[in-house]
């Protein structure tokens, strides 16, 4: 699957159009804010995971989920929520590093797609 098709499948365009009311300027603003948040929060998520700071990791994931929702990345947000919920229960997340890496990649592919639409 090419990145465009993959990006398209990650983003709920109808939801994005609904929250922006079809306003191109607002959509562009949301995408720019999402790009900044993506850089910041993915960096935080990686740092907190690496330092095993699970409390901060939960907070960073929670904060990033809001950004994902703001641009229609509902499936990605849902996957992050599963991780967050498991961490809140103080249970180990199976293959956490792999999952975080996959979600980071998913977010970056979607961001690239958003910037092109």
TrEMBL record:
Name by which UniProt lists this protein: HPt domain-containing protein
Keyword set, alphabetical order: Phosphoprotein
Record-annotated HPt domain positions: 23-117
Pfam families the record matches: Hpt
Matching Gene3D superfamilies: HPT domain
SUPFAM superfamilies in the cross-refs: Histidine-containing phosphotransfer domain, HPT domain
Residues with PTM Phosphohistidine: 62
Organism encoding this protein: Dyadobacter linearis
């Amino acid at each position: 699957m090419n990145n465009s098709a993959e990006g398209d499948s990650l983003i709920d365009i109808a939801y994005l159009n609904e929250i922006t009311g079809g306003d191109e300027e607002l959509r562009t603003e949301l995408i720019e804010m999402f790009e900044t948040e993506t850089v910041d929060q993915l960096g935080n998520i990686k740092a907190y995971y690496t330092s095993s700071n699970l409390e901060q990791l939960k907070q960073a994931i929670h904060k990033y989920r809001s950004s994902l929702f703001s641009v229609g990345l509902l499936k990605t947000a849902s996957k992050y929520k599963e991780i967050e919920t498991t961490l809140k229960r103080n249970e180990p997340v199976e293959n956490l590093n792999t999952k975080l890496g996959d979600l980071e990649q998913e977010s970056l592919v979607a961001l690239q797609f958003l910037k092109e639409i």
